[in-house]
Write a structure and sequence with these properties.
With about 475 residues, this protein is an alpha/beta fold. The protein is built from 25 helices and 16 strands. The strands form six sheets. It has a five-stranded parallel sheet, with helices on one face. Helix 13 crosses helix 16 and helix 15 packs across helix 16. It starts with 5 loop residues before the first helix and ends with a helix.
Length: about 475
Amino acid sequence: MEAKNIGELKKSGYTSKTIKEEIRANLIERLKNKSSSFEGIQGFDDTVIPDLERALLSKHNFLLLGLRGQAKTRIARKLVTLLDEFIPIIEGSEINDDPLQPISIFGRNIVNTLGDKTPISWVHRSDRYVEKLATPDVSVADLIGDVDPIKAATLKLPYSDERVIHFGLIPRAHRSIFVINELPDLQPRIQVALFNILQEQDLQIRGFKLRFPLDIQFVFTANPEDYTNRGSIVTPLKDRIESQILTHYPKSIEIAKSITEQESKPAKQQSDKIEMHGLIRDILERLVFIARKSEFVDVNSGISTRLSISAMENLYSTAERRMLKNKEKKTSIRINDFWGIIPSIIGKVELVYEGEQEGHYNVALKFLEKAISETFLEYFENPKLSERSEKDVYGVVRAYFQNQNEVKLYNDDSDKDFQSALDKIVGLDGLLKTQKIKKADYPIMKELILHGLSEFEVIEKDFIINQMLFRDPLSGMLTELGDI
């Protein structure tokens, strides 16, 4: 049974712990049991998480430094799971006063008056997390507090009396986790206001200094880009933050796929009726890896994992829209559907001058085309090398297009019409048999071969409003000459 007053709390054997001692004790238990400290955070097992665990075991405040979309805020929010499920506070305290160690004048007065009969309430760990986005308009009053002239006048108290203080976010986060996101965006004079809280544990409000041993686990996040584009962390504050932990993007496509699958949220109707081949996932994640290394992209800005998450959701919606238009009950995502994710790419990529000259749309297409060509080479031989070998595995397919045959793939084709267009291409079935491709994978593999051959210039691919036209490059040139 939960204690209802300080007397019952003492009889229960409760002992006060600081929040950092609390987190440390729970982390030690997880490490002993070999359970995950930050469940749901992937790709950091050997890099970021060990650094985090060392910081928490050391009872450090820490800064997470990394580009956008590197799970910094997610990590901060996961810290809540390392707190005790419930803690007692003095009932009515606005700063979560510890019943056995009150620090506010309200808490001290009520304990002095009622003693062991002081009523207590219990706070769940989910209510012990405070998050603030640093913006240029954040004031000292917002974070630390201010003198309340109305309270002073009403109670007839001088401004030097502790009771006239209106507490800001940080004092109200006593015995909680307090997160400041994008710390460099905080004005230097506001950052200076944090010095005493982090080191000396006192509050300074309009010249009124108050010894106030706040018990807070501070977490700060920052983007390296901020140091040059918008602001910086002042050196004395940086010095007071005991650990700085670097985050990063997924190191492998497999990890990236796992993160995207975990975070993307297609509607249940979509996931139930739309099939996504593993090859589609490979192309999607490879596209993001290519974008991060592209000469057209500002590498200092980074490319968030939100790109692949949004693109995944858009792929499902592109397929669903087509399925609904054709009154089909189910469908599969095609390579052709990737042209529906262009809006997901454009808004999440910061281009350098050369990229701006190319244009967002063309840059996005280049990422996609390179991702397709790299995925193609994972399954099939390079057409340029095959052409020079004794037996060209693409010979029959080349001949088909050289005989003036064209293939039109419409974005909104029904599954039946789309597959029929692919099945007409002579040589694809034979090629797939020699590569020992599973029969069930023939539809997606035929499409991959078609797009792959166009990337290696064996055939030509043209975008024409709502369709893609595949044909022999020479016939394309002759058509253009005929139009002159």
